[in-house]
């Protein structure tokens, strides 16, 4: 009798837990998706029929695999069909507003300029954010860092880091950026002298962008930070592989060879970051200036915030949050910038007249000296080239937002979209940047003069390489300063032409990159 009561007491909580788990699973994987599908269908938003659990994942993978199986047959910039074939197919079949299912996550594609602006505006900043699938997919190389934070935590983190990227602080970084760029130019000259004038420029730009962020924000150098960059890249690759099965309920808890490797690499990465943070803290405690000498970099600001918030409730930075924020900025401040520089050099190498124009401007403004903060606003041709590069090859091709509450986009009957809580909205940036209805019949051509000062801007609100609104890229100004400085130094140092070995094969692996790199022929000009 006593044993029976004990058994019942033990069984009841277990039964409760099992029932709860079953309810959550049914709710996440069936009831909520069914509710969302009904609400969207009621407004005429349809899409390809999803399969149970996987949704349209397999269709997306098959379409992308087929479209990117080979290289492009010409050096065309008409790349939307290659990189977003599912968007092209389904928007033709179901209209520009359609829904597809990424596992059990519904993704509504939104391209309407008014709806996009509204979605990214401050009105929805606190009720939209990054979904569980996304956060889980980036857990190991971003963690709770700014890119994946939501709600009040995001707001607090953004408030802490934003001052590091304000205009007055950026002025102090220009000299460091120019010095890093000149070192790269020297390394490229040596490479040309040693091994001939063919160079794969993507690897050099990745190293340069890494050196710049490591020096200006983390008081270290690329060589010291190299292992950190390598680990983040490897973690990105492994996480992409292990995330392929996240749609399986509970799969995040199952052991796998990827997960074991991720755990090991993440342990090493976090240890390196802890040591780097500790070193900076000691330097600060001793009152010595950080080696970068460019004022307080991001790491210094994060440390100050951590000190300030030692006793500050749940929003304060704890040690793990510091580590996650460092990972985030090593990742976000490196790859996107390197890709912008690489694509810009590819476009200049294949458009010699624009290369000459930009070089003449740099010579006129900088007069053979390294670029300074005062030179940068005068480099308008270079700004146009950079904008056109970001339009044709935006490093981030999609902007995702999940609705955490029911929201409404658009205005008035027939022009309104009710977005149910739990639905994700995906803005296909690349498709908007190549839309002939917005940019004209030459939308796929490299025409930097469309960004010339004083020209009409029919594309206003449709040029979004850094997103827009309160959750736009916090490093936008930094990235633009960096791109101008590096390209000015490169243009003054070399004439570049595209190599016969270049194979045009843009692919989207989290960011838009050239699958085989960008080999160019470099002709050194007078050294600076
Ligand atoms: C050409 C270079 C860059 C491009 C095209 C770019 C693009 C973007 C885009 C589109 C977003 C919005 C992502 C989303 O909402 O899902 C974003 C966010 C972000 N970017 Fe950049 N980025 C660049 C460079 C940088 C740099 C240099 C840094 C740091 C130094 C940086 C740090 C961040 C961070 C932390 C966020 C998250 C902001 C937030 O959620 O509040 N980015 N970036």
Automatic annotation (TrEMBL):
Subcellular localization, as worded in the UniProt entry: Membrane
Residues that hold heme according to the record: 473
Entry's Gene Ontology cellular component terms: membrane
Gene3D superfamilies, per the entry: Cytochrome P450
Cofactor: heme
Keyword Transmembrane: yes
SUPFAM superfamilies listed in its UniProt record: Cytochrome P450
Keywords of this entry: Heme, Iron, Membrane, Metal-binding, Monooxygenase, Oxidoreductase, Transmembrane, Transmembrane helix
Matches recorded under Pfam families: p450
Predominant cellular place of this UniProt entry's protein: membrane
Keyword set includes Iron: yes
Domain of life: Eukaryota
Stretches that traverse the bilayer: none
Gene Ontology process terms (BP): lipid metabolic process
A GO MF label: heme binding
Similarity section: Belongs to the cytochrome P450 family.
Protein name in UniProt: Cytokinin hydroxylase
Source organism of this protein record: Sorghum bicolor
């Amino acid at each position: 009798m006593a044993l029976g009561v004990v058994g019942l007491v033990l069984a009841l909580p277990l039964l409760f837990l099992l029932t709860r788990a079953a309810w959550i699973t049914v709710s996440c994987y069936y009831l909520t998706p069914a509710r969302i599908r009904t609400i969207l269908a009621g407004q005429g938003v349809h899409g390809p029929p999803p399969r149970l659990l996987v949704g349209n994942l397999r269709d997306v993978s098959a379409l992308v695999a087929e479209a990117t199986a080979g290289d492009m047959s010409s050096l065309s910039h008409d790349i939307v069909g290659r990189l977003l074939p599912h968007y092209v197919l389904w928007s033709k079949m179901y209209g520009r507003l359609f829904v597809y299912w990424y596992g059990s996550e519904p993704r509504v594609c939104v391209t309407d300029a008014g709806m996009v602006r509204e979605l990214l505006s401050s009105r929805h900043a606190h009720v939209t954010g990054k979904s569980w699938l996304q956060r889980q997919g980036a857990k190991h190389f971003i963690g709770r860092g700014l890119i994946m934070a939501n709600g009040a935590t995001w707001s607090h983190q953004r408030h802490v880091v934003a001052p590091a990227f304000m205009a007055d602080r950026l002025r102090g970084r220009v000299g460091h950026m120019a010095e890093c760029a000149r070192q790269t130019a020297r390394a490229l000259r040596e490479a040309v002298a040693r091994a001939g004038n063919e160079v794969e420029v993507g690897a050099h730009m990745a190293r340069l962008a890494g050196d710049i962020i490591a020096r200006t924000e983390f008081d270290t150098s690329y060589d010291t930070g190299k292992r950190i960059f390598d680990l983040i890249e490897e973690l990105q690759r492994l996480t992409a592989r292990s995330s392929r099965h996240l749609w399986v309920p509970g799969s995040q808890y199952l052991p796998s060879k990827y997960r074991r490797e991720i755990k090991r690499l993440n342990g090493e990465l976090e240890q390196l970051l802890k040591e780097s943070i500790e070193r900076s803290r000691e330097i600060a405690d001793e009152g010595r200036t950080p080696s970068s000498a460019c004022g307080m970099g991001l790491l210094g600001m994060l440390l100050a915030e951590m000190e300030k918030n030692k006793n500050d409730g749940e929003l304060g930075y704890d040690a793990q949050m510091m580590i996650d924020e460092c990972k985030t900025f090593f990742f976000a401040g490196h790859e996107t910038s390197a890709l912008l520089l690489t694509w810009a050099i590819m476009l200049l190498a294949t458009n010699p007249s624009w290369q000459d124009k930009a070089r003449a401007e740099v010579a006129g403004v900088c007069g053979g000296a390294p670029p300074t903060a005062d030179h940068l606003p005068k480099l308008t041709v270079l700004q146009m080239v950079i904008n056109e590069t970001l339009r044709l090859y935006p490093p981030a091709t999609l902007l995702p937002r999940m609705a955490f509450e029911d929201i409404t986009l658009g205005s008035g009957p027939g022009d309104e979209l009710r977005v149910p809580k739990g639905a994700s909205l995906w803005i296909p940036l690349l498709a908007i940047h190549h839309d002939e209805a917005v940019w004209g019949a030459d939308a796929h051509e490299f025409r930097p003069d469309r960004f010339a000062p004083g020209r009409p801007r029919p594309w206003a609100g449709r040029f979004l390489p850094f997103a827009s609104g309160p959750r736009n890229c916090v490093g936008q100004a930094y990235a633009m300063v960096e791109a101008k400085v590096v390209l000015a130094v490169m243009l003054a140092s070399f004439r570049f032409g595209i190599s016969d070995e270049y194979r045009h094969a843009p692919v989207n692996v989290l960011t838009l990159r050239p699958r085989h790199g960008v080999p160019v022929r470099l002709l050194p000009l007078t050294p600076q």
